[in-house]
Design brief:
Helices cover 32% and strands 25% of the residues. The protein is of the alpha/beta class and 199 residues long. It has a single domain, classed as P-loop containing nucleotide triphosphate hydrolases (Rossmann fold, 3-Layer(aba) Sandwich). The structure holds guanosine-5'-diphosphate and magnesium ion.
């Protein structure tokens, strides 16, 4: 499989600005700074299509990217980079505005097939446990990913991923946007997710 095309479509701060939704969508969700934009870039083989920020909590927009991959039939879909949650330095008012926006998108978007939920392999908290459950209840597919595994010494990675699987009670794919580890596995999961309507 090859990525034939990856292009930025639009940024939205509210649902009225979302694009038509005529392509199957895969959303990337997770705490601020967990590596959502980096994973998206790594999957697409692009350096800075989704902006990677040095300052956590910066992206307040829902960013849409049109993606085409080579396939027997050919396939097109939309990747959606969601604003991160849970960054303490962002004012409470802003956080309270984010939550409903993201929740509204995830709950109401009919083009949405599933969510890639990112958790730092060294963290994983109640927020992620709640999200896993909630995403399931929404009839959405879930791909749970442990990010930044390059930050763990090799000997601790399998254990780190297993611990996260135990915590979240779902299979977890270990990833590094830095080294490219796990990208094939995530792609495979996305490809099985994308054609299926939400149930
Ligand atoms: N070592 C390492 N750093 C990463 C990885 N993914 C992201 N980062 C770094 O983590 C920071 C936040 O990344 P970003 O993609 O902007 O996170 P986002 O806020 O979830 O979109 C940046 O400094 C990235 O360079 C990874 O797999 N390994
Ligand atoms: Mg980002």
């Amino acid at each position: 499989m090859k990525v034939l095309q990856a292009e930025f479509v639009t940024s939205a701060t509210e649902p009225s600005q979302f694009p038509a939704g005529d392509l199957p969508e895969v959303a990337f969700a997770g705490r601020s700074n967990v590596g959502k934009s980096s994973l998206l870039n790594a999957l697409l083989g692009r350096k800075n299509l989704a902006r990677v920020s040095q300052t956590p909590g910066r992206t307040r927009l829902v960013n849409f990217f049109r993606v085409a991959v080579s396939d027997k039939k050919g396939a097109e879909f939309m990747f959606v980079d969601l604003p991160g949650y849970g960054y303490a330095k962002v004012s409470k008012a802003v956080q309270e505005q984010w939550g409903p926006m993201i929740e509204g998108y995830l709950a109401g978007r009919s083009a949405l097939r599933g969510v890639v939920l990112l958790t730092d392999v060294r963290r994983g908290e109640q927020d992620e446990i709640n999200l896993v459950r909630w995403i399931g209840e929404q009839g959405l597919g879930l791909i749970a990913v442990a990010t930044k595994i390059d930050k763990l010494p090799r000997g601790q990675r399998v254990r780190g991923i297993r611990d996260l699987e135990t915590l979240l009670d779902v299979p977890v794919i270990g990833c590094s946007a830095e080294t490219g580890e796990g990208m094939d596995e995530v792609w495979k999961a996305i490809r099985t997710l994308a054609p299926r309507p939400r149930g």
